[in-house]
Sequence to fold (155 residues):
Amino acid sequence: GTNAIAFCRAYPELTATVFDLPQTLKVTKAYVEKAGLSERVTLQAGNFHQDEFDGVYDVALMSDILHYQDGPTNAALVEKVYRHLNEGGRLIIKDRFLDRERTSPAWTTAFAVHILVNTEHGQCFTIDEARQWMDQAGFHHVEELEPCAMVQGSK
Fold:
């Protein structure tokens, strides 16, 4: 919800949908109401492993999701998002990506150990792996926006 709030504040014409687990949306709802954005931010409860998204969108932001699951699950999720984008829509993925050698950046390598120890399937991936999932889903113009942090592709 914090990203939706920030983007709606920056772009007065923007509306946003936050898709998250029901218990998370209870907290999100309070933040959205406090920001005075209830008319522009829609909350959709669901589990992206099981539930479909409502509607189609111009932009989707996946923020800090990939490192909690394995590669095939991420590939399926990227494909699911692709199906819910308008033609010309964009997917932006923000996460903690490793370099090609999986040895840096230092913060991400430390985080990768944390995720490995504390989750069932979690790990940190490379930008190349995210690009591959996006390519397989049908995205084009896939590019790294910020080194080891953000990648986007267009439908």
Summary: The chain has a mean pLDDT of 95. The domain at 47-66+73-95+127-154 is CATH 3.40.50.150 (Rossmann fold). The radius of gyration is 16 Å. The first helix runs from residue 2 to 10.
